């Protein structure tokens, strides 16, 4: 056994939230490729997400995106989800696909754009009350494309005021989670470009305001696990958007581009108390499946997180600390690498079976016929996508 | 006078080709914002491009994108252009917006995809014969998103074979120009990612195959003027796609992000014989106007190129070479910077008037009422865009 | 006149601190090239720095580096400086050139290394009391080269405790300024890698603890002027280390690599209240002169800052704000660029003469014979350098 | 068995050359830390290198650096090496540590600097004739720090002429290998900054001129395995300098920063025919051990290469090609990842014992007492270092 019982017990608690939009079509500014069987409604997205949970036991909740997932009856949507074995999760606001937000939303210079954006978030909070969601996640496209286009400092103050009004409406059991991003779609300045900005904004709000770390939203070379350690130390790491990238915000399958980085991130999560029942950290995927199939793409992602968590939990922390205190650089590094290089897959497969799950979730899904079924059934209507 | 007569004489030869697609709507994967007056047809794009030339005298040709600018009668389109004071220029192929190219085009593993892509280029050559275009410009989205997805080496060989077939059909007075790009839309590997790859591919073809350098298509920190100098030395710099960027391929107005870089690039162009009547180098814009107006955005761009060319032509090259040979680092740098810091705008304004052009092309265009006119006229129909 | 009287009046207040170490030899890990006339003592460094002030009127103070500039009698050193027309400025600590700091200093796991490093800073404070310095500037090389080598989280806590002890010893009129750096000399993790970390550490200390922003210490593509605006908004921008870079921490002459970036930074400094008599922001150079002469290199740097400040002060802020509120992207950008493209050099030359300074400080210095004099005089002894 | 017999047989051929300078002290521009037992002579470096081979069977040759490893009698040095179980390998020239090369060597504007640099290489060839070395490896620090400092184009022509003269003196069984590097120690332009430049320079020389790829010498985000595939396709991949990096040219232990990248590189090496008896590709380490012990650092490196080669050799290439041709993105990626995630360490340990090597070379070396012995013996004299 390369993975011991303690590790397996810890893995039993793992829950990774899926984004409803991962099941719709997505792409680049050059082209969005469609696929047969793509969902046309929020319900169909949830049904697809439930498949991921069915075969992995790892993905019990689905995040919604407003207005993409707007429905008339959220209680009915929640029942639909529960009937499919999952629950509704984080509510994501959207202030980047309306013409009124061309020059910004919560940070905009235009008072009417700010008002509209604040009201949209207040509506999201109402939806959260119906869906029973804990987290309101805010990612802002706000920024500018040209030096001089707008006033960086004023926009930061605008943002603070907008967030304060939204935060004042968050319930006692709810949280506001503010995401940061290095660049795109703004190409000169972005109003929340780094963890420092997200931190100072949420720190000004209060205890229930936290930072969301998207693993693809950093400058080249950024040590992300350092940010994880720092935010946990400050009590402000609210959630993860997992994905991976070789270049910019590529939104590839988590672990696909740099598995060792994923390992180091998860190691710092565990080290800093961010993993396990009492942790405030929500784990979520945020990816695009441009050329690969969506449901198995999500299955691959949650399995990658699970396998890497197993490795990170396997680090011999006592030996590591001893080597660190001895300044034995090579030994300390070897202890960490030993856990990374360990192959947990066979043990995890066996353990899955003890829990009534398929040993190989990917194969089980592919053999299930679900993909063929939705391709046949979902003909007509408008396929969901980033903008749908 | 900060700009002398020799420089002004040299500037009289300057010609910058405009891309027809710059006048349509463009944006990011998150949102494409539309604007009143956006062209609906190739003719309307050409009419808009002609405005840029009318006020600046700098943009006598318009590049077409096939199939976006497909028409039944190219002779008629050419007449239309000439009636508006401009001519048709480079033909750009497009192998990134058809479902068949999901996994590549000229480099694809699929023989049918390659066949289709080659045939598309043969069709482009036929169009060139009708439009009288010299250059076939090829930018390929080909690449993969995940390690293992396809075979890097085989794709390179496929690409060579595809290009050879296309090149064999190029006329004696025509050229094939191959663009490279660091990444996007492919996020793991790109089949033509750097100047080295473009160079070895076109060098294998023959004399009429050249490299296209897009100023936004490099890794962070890349010294682009070095590549300019190297390609000119090798006789293989065929054309420029001008734009600017702070991050990735942001496609901002040329000179907007790093004016000094534009100056250094133009200095090396002149230094290496790439500027002037006998030069093989075609100058073209390739930008997106996501949040700013398109026609004045293009006017600003060509003016930026002109003003920076004036500065680059003003370098005291004899003094510079003397300082270089003396290893007087500070003096050599000062001589270059002196030209950069010189403000040629008043001299250029006066010179424009001597040539029957407005002193301030930007103001003249804005005062002309054209923008209001097209906003009123062009109602209904489908606005042109990257995909239209 | 391109530069008006208000701007010139504002420029009269400008003061840029010079680093004593800029006058010693410096280089890369590959080679340090020496030059004739390089100082051998703190006094000779100060004498050289005084030359920069003599010809520019811009550099009234000299920063010291301890232990490089340790002397027996700081009162005498101060008198020496004043006799040469300058004063002593910031005290810079050094915890990166002693074998005991191989695995860190203020953040180290080793208690004895931390103790030594804290004591070194207490000694620096005593020196500040003698030199009359206001600022203790701390740049830390602390970090690790390999994942697992040490515990990121524990080191952050160690750092907080170390800084608290130092801060407790800072006088009421003194400040602690904490610099951050993306990487180097540590190549895996750095304990103070970004402005966020520096900010949270100094915010925990108190009002007299501030952030130092070195313009070369960021990830590729980082929008530095955004950080300037943010830190000014938070009241925590304590000082600048000016230099420039194309790649990593190249430490080139300020303004040499990207003049437009320097302009944007200075614009945000002014915009945010960081410029002028009441400002808490200290301006300092921190450069290496590897291949160019050192004294004229420093003269070039302070002139670059002055000329760019003149441009930044010239922005028509009322017109800019109006264009921003109108969302006239092209006009707003043009207003900013207009100030950048204005050439203030002739006006500044004339203004210098009214103040009893040479019109061209660079030429005046080169003609003074000082360089030849020190080359002849300073023979024998050990030339100062980064490590000397 | 995760590693099959075919793979093990292929591994038996693996040979990785060690750099003599890896055993001396190295560091950053900030500090070079010394260690007890550091070699003082070329013989002591070779003796240390022989330890790596003794415990791993992977490192049969040692590369020399001229003038660092100059001796009076190379035949005697070769005998010394052979007596210690290793042989002499590549000769590395050095044109970056002499004052005459301050402004360049083979590319310099100064004719005398070029002459000296060419002569140095001719001397290296004479040494190669005595040591029986096949490869002359050239890495150039040539470049400039400031725009305008020197003429990029002229320097490229100078370089071509210098290389031609050196190449004319290379023996029929010898090769010239030209390394490229993105930046450092030059911070504006580097004369051989990328594979394209190295390729066009060596292609102009002839068949026995090749490119050297140092894995740390690229812009952020560069797809190195693509360059491997391209150079193998062109028949011009002469050698590797293995190391790893998180940021710039960090020169960390190979595989330490991004093990998956190392895997992908080795996969393309094998895919393109660069591995095995008939391959023209020389594998070499080029690292710095700044904070870790040097001999075990080198042992860790060659083991990392061996283990990763085992994984790369284990890819099911037939299944991979089938998945690629089916455009089954997820399956193709999974097949590659399956090999990467396989843990070959136990199999390799067992296999080592069958070959008379210790199962755990690292432990065996540490238990041998060699480190303690040299620390005790090598007292006095000057420790070797990058500059010694």
Please describe what this structure looks like.
The structure is a homotetramer of 388-residue chains. With 388 residues, the first copy, chain A, is an alpha/beta fold. The first copy, chain A, has a single domain (14-314, 354-377), classed as Alpha-Beta Barrel (TIM Barrel). Chain A is 44% helix and 11% strand. Chain A is built from 14 helices and 10 strands. Chain A has helices at 5-11, 42-56, 74-83, 111-131, 152-167, 195-203, 224-233, 259-271, 294-313, 317-325, 329-341, 345-354, 361-368, 370-377, and strands at 18-19, 61-65, 87-92, 135-138, 143-144, 175-179, 189-190, 209-214, 237-242, 282-285. In chain A, strands 1-2-3-4-6-8-9-10 form an 8-stranded parallel beta sheet. Chain A has a two-stranded antiparallel sheet with strand order 5-7. In chain A, helix 2 (42-56) crosses helix 13 and helix 4 (111-131) packs parallel to helix 5 (152-167). The longest helix of chain A has 21 residues, at 111-131. Chains A, B, C, D: It comes from Galbitalea soli. Chains A, B, C, D: Its EC number is 5.3.1.14. Chains A, B, C, D: This is L-rhamnose isomerase.
CATH superfamily of chain A: Divalent-metal-dependent TIM barrel enzymes
Structural class of chain A: alpha/beta
- The number of distinct β-strands of chain A equals 10
**How is the largest sheet of chain A built, in terms of strand order?**
1-2-3-4-6-8-9-10
| Name of the CATH architecture of chain A | Alpha-Beta Barrel
Strand content of chain A: 5-15%
Mean pLDDT, all residues of chain A: 97
Q: From N to C, what is the helix and strand string of chain A? A: HEHEHEHEEHEEHEHEHEHHHHHH
What is the terminal separation of chain A in angstroms? 47 Å
- Poorly predicted ranges of chain A: none
General form of chain A? globular
The major pleated sheet of chain A works out as:
8 strands, parallel
Total number of domains of chain A: 1
Quaternary structure of the protein: homotetramer
Which two chains touch over the largest interface?
A: A-C, 59 and 59 residues
CATH classification class of chain A: Alpha Beta
Portion of residues in helices of chain A?
40-55%
Instruction: Find the CATH topology of chain A.
Output: TIM Barrel
